[in-house]
Amino acid sequence: MTFSDSQFFFKDKNLISVLENSLLEKEYSLTFSSQYKIYYLLRPIIPIFVRQFLQKRKDYGEIPENWFMENKLFPKLTELTQGQEFEIPYFWKDKANFCFVTTHDVEEQEGFDRIAKIADLEEELGFRSSWTLIANKYKIDKGLVKDLQNRGFEIGVHGYNHDGKLYFSKSTFDKRAKLINKKLAELGAKGFRSPQFHRNLDWIADLEITHDLSTFDVDPFQPLPGGTYSIFPFIYKNYVELPYTLPQDHTLFVTLENVSSEIWKQKTKWLIRNHALVLLNTHPDYLETDKKLNTYLDFLKYLKNETNGMWKALPQEVASWWKFRDSFSRGEEKNNSGFSQDSVSMIKFKFKKDGLEII
Ligand SMILES: [Zn+2]
Fold first, then answer.
1. Which residues, 6+ apart, have CB-to-CB distance to 326 below 8 Å?
2. How many domains does the chain have?
3. Which CATH number characterizes residue 311's domain?
4. How far apart are the CA of 133 and the centre of ligand 1, in A?
5. Averaged in consecutive runs of 10 residues, what is the pLDDT profile of the chain (359 residues)?
């Protein structure tokens, strides 16, 4: 069994195996077809407008209108558990109603150059975000990195050079993992996110990280579609996995040509009802117009004004909390996480088709 029994607080082997299949995306093929490999080999010489044309023409198959709300895991768990009640440590510290994390992948130099402005605007609204930077693609201004970290932002690493080949073979990954680890240390970073959301959670375990951000609950628009259907973090091997739970800006703004925060708000309401992790990923590269940037800021204002009991956290804080909650529940004495034992409370819940019912 890959997951520790204690992590889910269940003993039932069937239940754990349903969770494992879902979290590790066993129903999806996360490997590359030869056609796909050829595309990425030729990608550097394909002009950007041709790439965008190909992306737009891409056939995503039948996608339901409410694709971003789809969850295949809860109906399965509901059927399997038949109203059974479970007692577990509550998800968030100090009984926070839900947890919000905002992250940005920085794709190009223009994106990097836009960080300072966006970070200022977030700070004015009382938010701090995580910026994942590509190890070897554009010039990383170390002064800005230090300044952001001093102001409470987080820096992570977004792959080696974002050429789509990181997972083509284990030997490529191993070679690049060394360079990624070097960059993590150099930037004082503990978090990783794969380029293009290509992923192999076993390989990622070779990185010197405390958390990874390379999965999502549901997203049929990714180059490797699939989904963990998890709206909570989970521990895998030596690190905490934090799936994103809101559609990305590129999907909404570019693929679906829908520059609005309505979908984010709609899904957030459901996530809050389930006391879940609201994790958004946007790119400074795609917040290039006032309209797009304001759509993002409008969403932050909505969270601030319209929701209660939000824990605004960085990925590294969520990861260390999740590990603390896990060790607390196993009765481990050792506590150097900075969290107090009083910050954990117990709850009882049962599964229902569209989420959790707290009793
Ligand atoms: Zn990227």
1. 4, 6, 7, 235
2. 1
3. 3.20.20.370
4. 9
5. 66 88 90 78 78 70 88 95 93 96 98 98 98 98 98 98 94 98 98 96 97 97 92 95 98 95 98 98 97 98 96 98 87 73 91 94
